[in-house]
Design goal:
Blueprint: H1 2-14, E1 33-34, E2 40-44, E3 46-48, E4 51-58, E5 64-68, E6 75-77, H2 78-83, E7 88-92, E8 101-104, E9 108-112, E10 115-120, E11 123-125, E12 139-141, H3 143-146, E13 150-153, E14 159-163, E15 176-177, E16 179-181, E17 186-193, E18 197-203, E19 211-214, H4 215-219, E20 230-231, E21 233-234, E22 248-257, E23 260-270, E24 279-281, H5 283-286, E25 289-294, E26 299-304, E27 318-323, E28 326-332, H6 337-340, E29 348-352, E30 355-356, H7 362-370, E31 377-383, E32 386-392
Parallel strand pairs: 5-12, 6-11, 18-24, 19-23
Antiparallel strand pairs: 1-10, 2-14, 3-4, 4-5, 4-9, 6-12, 7-8, 8-11, 9-10, 13-14, 13-25, 15-26, 16-17, 17-18, 17-22, 19-24, 20-22, 21-28, 22-23, 25-26, 27-28, 28-29, 29-30, 29-31, 31-32
């Protein structure tokens, strides 16, 4: 009884930590078993923006769309759970819109390509709604299932390679020690910033950003030159339960991870959920490597792709979000193309490159503002009784 109460208290205190905005099961409830000798499995995926989308089955279900997220726990959308006849068991506190989450009352079987994991207990929760053209999302495959496997991820390959053994051909780069953030099992490695500060960093395929550090690193540490730190107007990156009204950005002279030294790296700072003290390495970083996550042996290998790691990329310097059917600017970096054009936080965007902003998916919006549209942007803003037209050139900025 004491162990159960301890687990529930842990859940209540640390509930903001779960990446898909839900609670993990108590530590003693880790579940699942691999069925058979899986050998080496190549599992195709579709890349929606930064999200790795896999086709999976639960028990004998139809194919479902799950996002592979190393910074999440495995969760099933509540509507899908009802469709599959999954009963909800232990209720958990939640910071989702409905405020409800639970563990599945009975274990289920996950089939992912040629992999089968049985006797697994997922979280059932209200996951973000899908808009037209958005990433399919029936659930998350998280670190609690990935812990069984060695996973090789190359964003350009269109498939992940999964086995229970190390890669047959050993990479030339030295394996890094990878520890699992307990009790959730998120993969962590150490990085060295500016040759002075060692920081834990989580491999997070659910994050679109390059490197995101906790606000405390810029507010309480002297590892960055304050003359190079800029403060955003509004916010670019937020998590449920966080209250910060801005982000920061700085240049790291060096980031050392194992054998690699990356110079002149853009680092963003945000209030991360709960007492997270580690930084996030997201898609913006991982896409430049083949990443080998060997969960059973607690090692990680980063194999750089040809072309090296770019020192800078272009962007518009702005972020926007749909609010009550309107696309509203929520973040601007000082000195960026958007700032120089006079765009301000709170402005309403009505058209981008001739497309009605209301009809744009999240994926399209992220693509426009991240620099994927290299020729620039034509923006139309609501201005009083008329429309204000602007032309943004994608460029490097602080």
């Amino acid at each position: 009884m004491k162990k159960l109460l301890g687990g529930l208290l842990w859940l209540f205190f640390f509930f903001p930590l779960l990446h898909p905005q839900e609670l993990p099961p108590p530590p003693q409830s880790r579940s699942g078993n691999i069925v058979g000798d899986i050998g080496i499995q190549k599992i195709p995926f579709t890349l929606f923006g930064h999200k790795i989308c896999l086709k999976i089955r639960i028990n004998e279900s139809r194919e479902l769309d799950f996002v592979l997220d190393t910074g999440a726990l495995t969760a099933v959308d509540r509507e899908i759970a009802r469709e599959l006849g999954l009963e909800e068991g232990l209720a958990l506190p939640s910071i989702t819109k409905s405020g409800k989450a639970s563990l599945s009352r009975r274990p289920v079987t996950f089939r992912i390509g040629g992999l089968t994991v049985e006797d697994f207990i997922p979280v059932i929760a209200d996951l973000p709604e899908k808009g037209e053209g958005d990433t399919p999302l029936d659930g998350f495959i998280g670190a609690d299932i990935l812990r069984f496997f060695c996973v090789i991820l190359d964003y350009d390959a269109g498939e992940i390679i999964v086995s229970t053994t190390p890669p047959q051909s050993q990479p030339s780069h030295r394996p890094l020690s990878m520890r699992k953030q307990m009790p959730m099992g998120f993969p962590l490695i150490d990085g060295l910033v500016n040759e002075t500060k060692k920081i834990p960093m989580m491999i997070d395929t659910g994050s679109p950003f390059l490197v995101v550090c906790p606000l405390t690193l810029v507010e309480n540490e002297k590892i960055f030159s304050y003359s190079t730190i800029i403060k955003s107007f509004g916010t670019f990156m937020t998590w449920p339960g966080t209250t910060a009204k801005c982000n920061y950005r700085a240049r790291a002279e060096t980031l050392r991870i194992g054998d690699f030294v990356i110079k002149n790296l853009t680092v963003d700072f945000a209030e991360l959920p709960g007492p997270f003290s580690f930084s996030l390495l997201g898609y913006g970083f991982l896409k430049h490597f083949v990443t080998i996550l060997d969960f059973p042996r607690d090692t990680l290998v980063l194999v750089p792709k040809s072309g090296g790691f770019p020192e800078a990329t272009g962007s518009s310097g702005m972020a926007a979000r749909k609010q009550e059917g309107r696309l509203i600017v929520r973040g601007i970096w000082p000195g960026s193309p958007a700032d120089r054009c006079g765009i301000r936080v709170g402005d309403e965007i009505v058209r981008i490159n001739g497309k009605n902003a209301v009809q744009l998916s999240r994926r399209e919006i992220e693509g426009f503002f991240s620099g994927d549209i290299s020729e620039g942007l034509e923006i139309e803003l609501a201005a009083g009784e008329g429309i204000k037209k602007l032309r943004l050139k994608i460029s490097q900025h602080p």
